[in-house]
Write a structure and sequence with these properties.
With 115 residues, the protein is α+β, with helices and mostly antiparallel strands. The chain has 2 helices and 5 strands; from the N terminus they run αβββαββ. Bound molecules: adenosine monophosphate.
């Protein structure tokens, strides 16, 4: 998978429509097209890398910055009651898009087990 084939790179560039709730120089936050919770968002770092295992130190630092920013957006994203962050990596986790993304799930009481 290259950046040219990547659906999330296309969303970031605006070539595929999405509901963008937040954007800055490092990331976008969009609504997941197939929500699994009342609020189901995706945090997409703008830089393409496949997953957390392939992440460089610089990309990890940027991701940390994105998560810190997320913590300041909680109320406006409808997550004031709490939220769950998930990042799937690889086949066993059913990762379907090979551009690192953080699922943000909330908007209601979630199941107490994740698998
Ligand atoms: P994962 O299975 O962890 O790779 O998650 C990929 C997520 O991307 C899934 O929850 C999909 O519903 C979501 N998704 C795929 N295509 C789009 C799209 N065009 N817009 C928004 N979300 C999408």
């Amino acid at each position: 998978m290259t950046m040219n084939d990547c659906i999330f790179c296309k969303i970031i560039k605006g070539e595929i429509p999405s509901v963008k709730l937040y954007e800055d120089e490092d990331m976008v936050i969009i609504r997941d097209v197939a929500p699994q919770a009342p609020v189901h968002l995706l945090l997409l770092p703008k830089e393409h890398f496949a997953n957390i295992v392939e992440m460089s130190d610089a990309q990890a630092a940027t991701l940390g910055k994105c998560l810190k920013k997320l913590s300041s957006l909680v109320d406006e994203l409808g997550l004031s009651g709490g939220f769950r962050l998930v990042s799937n990596k690889g086949k066993d986790a059913c990762q379907s898009v090979e551009h690192l993304h953080i699922h943000i799930l909330g908007g209601a009481q979630l199941a107490d087990k994740m698998a």
